[in-house]
Amino acid sequence: MTNTISGQKMIKNSKIGVVTAKFNSEVTDKLEAGALATLRELGCSESNIVAVKVPGAFEIPLAVQALLSGGCDAVVALGAVIRGDTSHYDYVCNAVERGCSELQLKYHKPVAFGVLTTDTDEQALDRAGGKHGNKGAEAAQVAIEMVNLLIQIGMDRV
Known about the structure:
Elements: E1 16-21, H1 25-41, E2 49-54, H2 60-69, E3 74-82, H3 88-107, E4 111-118, H4 121-126, E5 128-130, E6 133-134, H5 135-153
Helix pairs in contact: 1-5, 2-3
């Protein structure tokens, strides 16, 4: 019989960071509210949540690194990059994704990617509490599930 390990969606005294980009705040404030509400619902105490605001999405990986090196067990990365008329969108999206991916592997800790990369403001709002749910809340759930999964695997001792 296969031994299947699956992370639980309840928190166990974990310190969780939430990094939110201020740019496109009409979207990112809703993502952050969803993430924070979900962390509280899952049992995370206020004293174990570290919320950080950065200017834009490009700055997210540096703040994530600071939180991981400062003792957070996981970080939820939140932002909204909305396509414009230039290639700037592509560079920002790629840099943020690459930075967050590399950091979770370097620190052996989850970085839940709640950075929206959309073509329009409407698409972003639909994913920040609109008709497609709140991706900030979903990212918070992913962070907790992954922390618990890594504990079960024994990776929390790395």
